[in-house]
Specification:
By secondary structure, this protein is of the alpha+beta class. It has 2 domains: about 1-130, Roll (Thiol Ester Dehydrase, Chain A), CATH 3.10.129.10; about 140-280, Thiol Ester Dehydrase, Chain A, CATH 3.10.129.10. Helices cover about 25% and strands about 35% of the residues. It is built from 6 helices and 11 strands. Strands 1, 2, 3, 4, 5, 6, 7, 8, 9, 10 and 11 form an 11-stranded antiparallel β-sheet that branches. Strand 10 (about 245-255) and strand 11 (about 260) form a beta hairpin.
Length: about 280
């Protein structure tokens, strides 16, 4: 019978936590990168993983926080094959076996030879995580602001010499913090009010990858504004050609950092956020 396979076992280090005092999303991505490569290796799919950049889509749903000192492990398995290879990953609190995060990973346009398809098909498990909500992208990114800009450094590359999944998410984290500051949720505000931004859903689509020394630009707008929730829409591109590398929908809430629960956005923040709302279809 097909089953989930442990593909990573780790802990939350103090330097892997953010200003909201929990495990930051870039380090989730680092563990997913490891888990995905390990699962591919176990399934005999190492060649497409190492051959070059291929389009991927990942959706992460965070059910509960992991905080400093937590021990956790990742279990992975193929969860589908047609029309594209789909992997599932689940982060498990090692202390109590509670699943805290679900990840769905889709490999777009990766053809598999018959032997590999058979290997993957025999290992498919039933997906017990939340159904992925397909949220529409904004009709345009007009009104977005620049939130991250830089060059690809050697430390951004993975074992295959590609811009790593963690590097993508780290740059989008930079963009998120810049976006929060732009609407008044500055570091001073966070410290004084004991408020932060807590992500509960990420939808990442990778179309290409910058290479070592390439420049990148991230522009951000807001796709949804609720009572306590904000969905940021980030787009990473080549600033010279406009070619898109990746886009990320980041859905979260303003968090009361003491009660660890959502808190309503103050009017000043809401007014500033309204100016970044992107046009819908």
């Amino acid at each position: 019978m097909a089953k989930w396979i442990e593909t990573c076992r780790s802990t939350v280090a103090p330097w892997e936590c953010d200003i909201t005092e929990h495990f930051t999303i870039a380090y989730y991505a680092d563990r997913i990168d490891q888990a995905s490569a390990t699962l591919a290796d176990l399934l005999g799919l190492s060649e497409p993983v190492s051959a070059g950049v291929f389009p991927r889509r990942l959706t992460l749903r965070f059910a509960r926080e992991l905080r400093v000192g937590a021990s956790f492990h990742v279990e992975s398995a193929p969860i589908g094959l047609d029309p594209a290879v789909r992997f599932g990953h689940r982060f498990v609190d090692s202390a109590n076996s509670e699943i805290v995060t679900w990840v769905e990973e889709v490999w777009d346009t990766v053809p598999l030879p018959d032997a590999e398809r058979k290997s993957v098909g025999e290992a498919v498990v039933i997906w017990e995580g939340p159904e992925t909500e397909r949220r529409a992208d904004p009709a345009s990114t007009e009104g977005s602001i620049a939130t991250a800009r830089g060059r690809v450094r050697p430390g951004d590359l993975d074992e295959f010499g590609r811009f790593s999944l963690a590097a993508f998410v780290q740059r989008f984290t930079d963009a998120n913090i810049q976006s929060l500051a732009a609407i008044g949720m500055t570091s001073d505000y966070i410290k004084a009010e004991r408020r932060g931004y807590s992500t509960f859903e990420l939808a990442l689509r990778i179309a290409g990858s910058p290479r070592l020394g390439d420049r990148y630009l991230i522009e951000t707008g807001i796709a949804h504004l609720g009572n306590s929730s904000i969905r940021f829409f980030h787009r990473m591109s080549d600033p010279r050609s406009g070619q898109e590398y990746a886009r990320l929908g980041q859905f979260g809430v303003q968090l009361d950092m003491d009660a660890r629960r959502p808190a309503s956005l103050p009017e000043a923040v809401r007014t500033a956020a309204t100016r970044l709302l992107l046009p819908t279809g």
